[in-house]
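Structure, all two chains, one model.
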Amino acid sequence: MSLLPFCEWLAITDWSIALHESLYLYPVIETTHVLALLLFVGSVTFVDLRLLGWVFPEVPVSEVTSRILPWTAAGFLVIAVTGALLFYAIPVRTYLSIFFRFKMLVLAGAGINAGLFHLTVSRGGPSWDRDPKPPLRARLTGAVSMISWALVIVMGRMIAYNWFDCDSQPQSDFVNWAAGCVLGP
Amino acid sequence: MTLYDVFDRLELTALGQLISDSIWLFPVVEAGHLIGLGLLGGSILVVDLRLLGLGLTARSPAYLLMATRPWFVAALLVMFGTGVPLFVSEAVKCYWSYAFWVKMGALVLALGFTFGVRNRIVNSQPELEPWLMRVLGVSSIALWLTVAAAGRWIGFS
């Protein structure tokens, strides 16, 4: 199933065109996306650092998560809404961007990592809640999270570059496959 | 030699040429700059949220300042280590960029405020007036957000 027809339809909606052609609105949304990174990645990083035992060793993990993660959620809301608007402004090219696709993949992985942490690792939390250095599974969660968000940032930045765009052929078979390029006859 | 000449020469240095001659070096260094931004944002916010009566409220601002300090310094090193090469590679463009000068002005203010005012006051007094904490937190967030926003805006010019 390809979402390409849907993206092509998105691209011809009035608001998508208006956003794409706007002089200030698009840069303002993009800047908001970057500023939300401060809140979102910034806050989640300190939860990850605590899980790794690298910051606030005196503070229980549950205190850090309960007091900091709401800010991560708020940051995520802003970054997801602005991100969706950025996609909406340039749907087809973004959908066919290998960087965007990899970013979404890593994003999903980071989400699963966070979900697993709340469902399994942190359930047994109380026993190691006050440990300056949490057990290996918790430390792994923190490390995977940090690496994932760093990758998401790198891939997100790279979407702006057209090295692997479908309309700048020839590309390798892998790029054409991964980016979902529709090649002419 | 005018300031413009200095910027012009910076761009012609080996470092400046290395980055501007490469198609991927600038984006990669820029991505590193953004990762540093995340760490910087977190280490500033943990303290500023606390000054606003939010976040880790069971801990003192002085404790949070001490605990986040190594990460704040590390983030600053990453930002300078990536930001200076980015600047050098397009120094002439920066010279003509309004956003660049806004960012530099805000950066000087933010650094001066953080080390000279906020951290000094937080460390010097065991009990801070709530209004003073709020002023410190809001000022710090406003200054650093200006730095970040103006920084992003360099790319639009």
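The mean pLDDT of chain A is 91.
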